[in-house]
Amino acid sequence: MSITYKNSGVDIEAGNKTIDLIKDKVKSTFTNHVLTGIGGFGGLFDFHEATKEYDHPVMVQSIDGVGTKLIIAKKMNKFDTVGIDIVNHCCDDVLAMGAKPLTFLDYVANETLDPKIMDQIVTGIVEACKISGVSLVGGETAEMPGVYLPGEHDIAGVITGVVEKDKIVDGINIKEGNIILGFASDGLHTNGYSLARKLFFDIGKFNVKDSHPKLEKTVGETLLIPHKSYVNPVMEIMNSGIQINGIAHITGGGFIHNIPRVLPVNLDVEIEKGTWPVLPVFKVMQELGNIEEIEMYKSFNMGIGLTIIIDPKDKEKIKEILKNHPDHTTYEIGKVIKGNKKVILK
Questions:
Q1: CA 56 to CA 73: how far, in whole Å?
Q2: Domain that holds residue 329
Q3: Tell me: the pLDDT tens digits for 319-344?
Q4: Total number of domains in the chain
Q5: What is the pTM of this model?
Q6: Residues 138 and 212 in one domain
């Protein structure tokens, strides 16, 4: 038998079939600034035209992956929500710099390309791109037998955003007396899944299809709830002229390690527990592992996916703006005090 690329483990035809399945969905995310279709060696985006209203546009970029949440997706044989996850996680990262996300690139690697699974992933990516007004300008699928085990996947994404240079949100304007508004999350987002899997499956001996009396959905469904995008409400706040002094995306590292990333060296943030409802999934995990409270706040978002630091005089104006975004709930969860760049839980 003659040796071919296919019988060595890489199926080019499966890649072509995948493109046929997803090309119309991908095109549905294009704005008129996208200059290429699918299948080229690179995606062209007219950055000049897209930034005409900016005096000094600065490009903001970020890259991330879905992480071990993919193991839950595999157990559930459900991959659309992880497509949503990768886009929204990246969108929220550039948003933390004050940037409007413009374009997205996805990278999906696996042992064997399954066009149906790829279609699910891209369906989620497309859904999330449309919500945040992002163009999916390109992507890559890679079959790597020997690198990945059968049935294994990895998903990463690159986002590009833009911000006016003098409106970059870098924390430099944070002052003592500023308050922290927290945007509610829907679940774990994309962080803490190595610990979550240990708690539910190793310690709790749950299956993804099992129920828990304190959870409305099955364990698997609860753990696959998608990461939220906070782009639309936060961009409307900034576009209204209100100054946001700092933004922290609560990802891996929880409150304790993410909020200090935006703080000046002489300030602390005091977080007042009980000012927002901690989601049941976090309470269940804490009980399963008898985890110390501080460890929970280091590992998970605890029900707050994004925080913005503002002058208290702007709180009521922001509340009015947020009436336009009923799918987002905010809580005043703390304040800025003198200190040395850390988070204090009260």
A1: 42
A2: 179-345
A3: 999 999 999 999 999 999 999 999 99
A4: 2
A5: 0.92
A6: no
